[in-house]
Amino acid sequence: xxxxxxxxxxxxxxxxxxxxxxxxxxxxxxxxxxxxxxxxxxxxxxxxxxxxxxxxxxxxxxxxxxxxxxxxxxxxxxxxxxxxxxxxxxxxxxxxxxxxxxxxxxxxxxxxxxxxxxxxxxxxxxxxxxxxxxxxxxxxxxxxxxxxxxxxxxxxxxxxxxxxxxxxxxxxxxxxxxxxxxxxxxxxxxxxxxxxxxxxxxxxxxxxxxxxxxxxxxxxxxxxxxxxxxxxxxxxxxxxxxxxxxxxxxxxxxxxxxxxxxxxxxxxxxxxxxxxxxxxxxxxxxxxxxxxxxxxxxxxxxxxxxxxxxxxxxxxxxx
Amino acid sequence: xxxxxxxxxxxxxxxxxxxxxxxxxxxxxxxxxxxxxxxxxxxxxxxxxxxxxxxxxxxxxxxxxxxxxxxxxxxxxxxxxxxxxxxxxxxxxxxxxxxxxxxxxxxxxxxxxxxxxxxxxxxxxxxxxxxxxxxxxxxxxxxxxxxxxxxxxxxxxxxxxxxxxxxxxxxxxxxxxxxxxxxxxxxxxxxxxxxxxxxxxxxxxxxxxxxxxxxxxxxxxxxxxxxxxxxxxxxxxxxxxxxxxxxxxxxxxxxxxxxxxxxxxxxxxxxxxxxxxxxxxxxxxxxxxxxxxxxxxxxxxxxxxxxxxxxxxxxxxxxxxxxxxxxxxxxxxxxxxxxxxxxxxxxx
Lengths: 319, 348
Fold this sequence. Notes:
Distance between the termini of chain A: 63 Å
Number of strands of chain B: 0
Low-confidence stretches of chain B: none
Order of helices and strands of chain B: HHHHHHHHHHHHHHHH
Shape of chain A: globular
Largest sheet of chain B: none
Number of helices of chain A: 12
Order of helices and strands of chain A: HHHHEHEHHHHHHH
Mean pLDDT of chain A: 88
Oligomer: heterodimer
Strand order of the largest sheet of chain A: 1-2
Shape of chain B: globular
Distance between the termini of chain B: 15 Å
Radius of gyration of chain A: 20 Å
Number of helices of chain B: 16
Structural class of chain A: mainly alpha
Strand content of chain B: under 5%
C-alpha cells in the first residue's frame, strides 16, 4: 500500500468518525462561551442516539429514505429538552455545573436503557434499516489527490457537520448575538449592566448545545453503531468536550480537534489493515486519543483560554 | 431553622424527591411503585444473605466516596475515581495471582499495590494541574479511558490471552469464613473494616494534622493560602495522590474481596462515578460518606431484586440516583424552599 493509498483509506474514515464529535464539540463551545460548563454533553448525545434509533426503527416504513434526517430532528428536540434540566439547575438553581452535568449523564443513560428494556424487552435495540448514504460530490471529486480523499463516497452528515462549524463561527464572531453570548461568558456583570439578559443568553446557549449534541448523538448512532445500547456512545461526549478545549473554545478549532480525534479513533479501527500501523499493539491505538488530549492540554495549547465566567453561576448584584 | 439543620435536610429532601420521581416513572410506565419499592426493600434487608451482600456493596462505595470527598475538600474535582479504582483493582489482583506469600505479608502487599496504583493515577492530573494549570476534570476523564484500555490489555497479557485472571491465592484474599457463615454464604468480606478505618484516617488527616489544615485552606482560597506561605502546588498534588489512593483501595475491595480476580471490562464499573454522588450526599465529610455509601450501596444491590420480584427494570434505581444527584447539586433551591417554609411557620 502506498502512502497516498493509505491516506485515501484513512482520511475519509477520520472525517466519518469526526462528524458527530464536531457537532457536539461546537455545542460545547456555545454553552461554555456563555459561561456554562456542560459535562452533560455525553448524556445529551446518549439521548440523541437513543431517540434517533427509536425514531428510525418506528418510522422507517413510513418515511423511507428521509427517515434518518427526520430522526435527527427528533433527536435534536429530545436532547434540547434534556438540556433544559441542566440549564434550570445551573442557571436558575445555581447548582454546581459539573455536578449537574454528571447528573444529566447518569439520567440520560439510565432513562434510555430503562425505555429500551421496556420497549424491546432486552438490553439493546434492533439494528436500523434506513441509514445515511454516501455520496460523490460533483466536480469536487475530480480534483486531483484531494478529490478522492475528501469528496468521494463521503457521508452527507460529515458535510453537514463541517457546514455547521462554519455557521457557528459566523454566529459567534460576526453577529450581535455572538457578541452578547461571549460577553455573558466573559463578564456577566458588565453584560448585565449593558442591558443584556444574562440568564436568557445562557438558557439559549445551553439549549443550542443540547440541540447540537442531540444531532451528534443521532448521527453517531445512525452512521457508526446502527443500534442503541448502554455502550453505544461510551465516552464520545467526553471526547467532544476535550475537542472543544483542544480547539480553544473556538468553533473552527473545535472542528480541527474533532477531526484529529476522529483520525485517532479511526486509526484504532482501520489500523490493523494498514502496514506498519498493524504492528503496533492495539492498546496503544486505543489510548492514543486520550493520551494526545492530555499532552495537548499540558503543552500545546497554552493556558487561560477558557471564557472567564465559565462555571460560575451569575447572581445579580453579587460582586 | 438553624443552618446546620438545613444542611442536613438538603440531602434528605433530595433523596425523598428522587424516590418520588422514581415512583412517578414507575406509575407512568405501568408498574406499581409500592411493589417496586417493596422489592427494593426486601432486596436490601430481605434476609441475612442480602444484608451481607448489601454491606459488601457498600464497602467500595465508602472508599470511592472518600476519594471524591477528599479531593473536593482541597478544591479539586476528581472525576477520575473510576479509573483509579480500575487500576487499583488490577494491581491488587495481579499481586494476588503473581506470587504466593504468607498471608500476613501477601494481603497487605496486595492492598498496598492497589493504593499505590490509584495514587499514581491521581498523581498525573495533580501534577498537570499544579505545573501546567490543566483542568483536572478533563485530565481525570481521559485517565479513566486510559485505565480501562490499559488494564484490559494487561489482563490479556497476564492471563495469556484470556478475559480474566486466575483466582487470587487465598493468602491475598479478604474473604472471611466467619462472615460467610454468619450471612448464609454471602460474599461479605473484611474489606468493610478497611473502609471504616479509612474513614477515620481521612477524618484524622483533615482535622488533626497540619497537612489537613493546609489542604482545606487551599480548598477555600488558593490565593490566601499562597500568601500565607503554603505550597499550593504541593498540596494540590498531594490531595490528588491521597484521593487516588482511596480510590485504588476501592478497587482492592473488588479484587481481594468480592470477585477474587479481575476481568476485562467493556465499560466502566460506575462505582467511581457514584462516588461523586456519595461524597455530595455526605457533604464531603468522612462520616457523611458512610451514610451516602450506605444509601447508594443499598439502592444498587437492592435494585437487583426488582426485575425478579416486581418485573421492573433495574435502571429505575439508576434514574432515582441521577435525580438525587441533580437535587443535591441544586441544593440552593431546596435551601430556599426550606427557609421560606421555616419563615412561614414563624410568622404563624
